[in-house]
Amino acid sequence: MKHTVHVIDVESGNLQSLENAIKYLGDYNVCYIHNAKEFEEAESNIQKLIFPGVGNYGHLISQLDKKNLVNPIRRYIKSGKALMGICVGLQAFFEASEESPEPDLHGLGLLQMNLTKFNSNDPDFVSSKLRKSVPHIGWNSIERISTKGKDFDREQTLFGINEESKYYFVHSYAAIISEKEKEAIKRYSEEGWDFAFTRYGSEHFLAAISYGNLFATQFHPEKSGLAGLAVIKNFLDGHKYGQVSLNQPQSRKRDLSGLTKRVIACLDVRTNDEGDLVVTKGDQYNVRESKEGESSNSVRNLGKPVQLANRYYEQGADEITFLNITSFRNSPLKDLPMLQVLREAAKTIFVPLTVGGGIKDMVDPETNSIVPAVKVAELYFRSGADKVSIGSDAVTIAESYYANSCKKNGKSSIEMISSTFGNQAVVISVDPKRKYLNSPSDTTMKSTKIQDPKSFGPNGEQYCYYQVTSQGGRKIHDLGAVELCVACEALGAGEILLNSIDHDGSNKGFNIELLIQVKNHVSIPVIASSGAGNPKHFQEVFELDCGIDAALGAGLFHREEYTVNDVKLYLQQSAGMDVRLEKS
Length: 584
Ligand code: 1PR
Known about the structure:
Elements: E1 3-8, H1 16-24, E2 28-33, H2 36-42, E3 48-53, H3 57-66, H4 70-79, E4 82-87, H5 88-91, E5 94-97, E6 111-117, H6 123-127, E7 136-141, E8 144-147, E9 150-151, E10 156-158, E11 166-171, E12 173-174, H7 179-190, E13 194-200, E14 203-211, E15 214-217, H8 225-237, E16 241-243, E17 262-271, E18 277-280, H9 305-314, E19 319-324, H10 337-348, E20 353-356, E21 362-363, E22 370-371, H11 373-383, E23 387-390, H12 392-403, H13 413-421, E24 426-437, E25 448-449, E26 463-470, E27 475-480, H14 481-491, E28 495-498, H15 512-519, E29 526-528, H16 535-542, E30 550-553, H17 555-558, H18 564-573
Parallel strand pairs: 1-2, 1-3, 3-4, 4-15, 5-6, 17-19, 17-30, 19-20, 20-23, 23-24, 24-28, 28-29, 29-30
Antiparallel strand pairs: 6-12, 7-11, 8-9, 8-13, 10-16, 13-14, 14-15, 17-18, 21-22, 24-26, 25-26, 26-27
The structure holds ligand 1PR.
């Protein structure tokens, strides 16, 4: 017989992946609790309760309050039954967060410590002339686990959490341990709390906490591959302390940031001429086969989206991105083509999934009603997406932002989605193309000197700015990539997916000058995209001192020239970089 796991649902993001992970483990069903009444009805039967949270601390705490869930949760904790918090679900056990400084907003206060924001001017980065991105997004290691103040041996685990594996984190605020908190940690340790510690740059913070049957992780176990599934299983099976075998092929060398280099596989998806949803790939965004003598060529078909995504997950992709590249075609809300793809993919893929294409206010042709972008995004989150990527709409939003003297209106898709689901859930996909200039004074946009003479303009122009496009390169705008990214960061975006139409499908390597230029103007993480042709190209981009630690490839994986694992092994063995390699 299957056991039931109860999950608190306060409408804060992707619960589908958690449900999928629990079901994937085999012996469990999931039952959601939305309010106090449902809690009370189920209370005597609840044996395992999970309290997930994504996004904004204040939003989560006020939702708990609004739904009268604070007292039932306190009562449940007191009863000593098993409870697991995830991400903001961990943060809720603390007293307060700098993210939501309203004086009357308090968390559950089990730990009388406050959460603070990571410092993008981390002194270790500043002295190395590197840039630290905030949010902290990516795969990090656990540095130390302690029980009652005493360090674990390396092979010991806390609910399966161990120092050999990598876990997926995505957050800007954390229980960062300054001198003052060291005292508190010592006190709580003496009272019997267990802690797992990690660091982002020079900032040490709590990655997991546990006391009796209470357990919480700052990272997302449901998005941390096999290592994360093991943590959930240990919690559900009640195995608090265990052992891990130490023969995993992890590198022990850690980056200054602590994060591994992230390798992302991207699938451009559209319907082909036969009406099937396929993965395709363009050269400079042209996805049609070019056969001589044919006027209308067919869309390149490289495989089925879910099948390919599973293949890349098994090869070790740290994230998978799906882009609906023909999103400008209207379809009824319930039939948005990527919903089904996500639902299927999220059943077996336990790393972060991003979906892009058509994230904007839309008119549902079936009902003729306007659906705000935040609702469209919510549908994707509820189908298994962790982040949405906004392309064309981001350009329109940035244009209005500048036209409005850099004032926010609170209504754009970027602002609405980030305030509900957190900045980390909003990626901006940028499609820039080189606009040649004789001199930087020919534009008001941030320009750059072209380094490679082979890339000079047709008339020998040695300067350019990166002019943004929308609708998959079809529409050109009087706006530069830097200006677009700066505006989107100010409005609440959490990450930039930086494509380059000039490099897309070229296999000649990433557009380094564009990447440096943009990264030097924003603090949020930038994902390098377009042009990857071999593992060395990933090394090149990760070695830049502007602090890029995520890079995306498409064509090289689709054509099976390299697997994701080939790239990661190369980075580890030839370039000495820290990557996540998982035991299969
Ligand atoms: O504008 O919000 O509806 O989003 C549409 C999304 O679809 C945007 O993210 C846009 O970049 C993408 N898109 C639109 N048309 C195309 C096309 O190719 N015709 N694809 C397109 C963009 C670029 C990358 C590609 C890398 C790596 N694809 O995602 O995967 O360049 O390729 P490579 O490694 O083979 O060089 P909206």
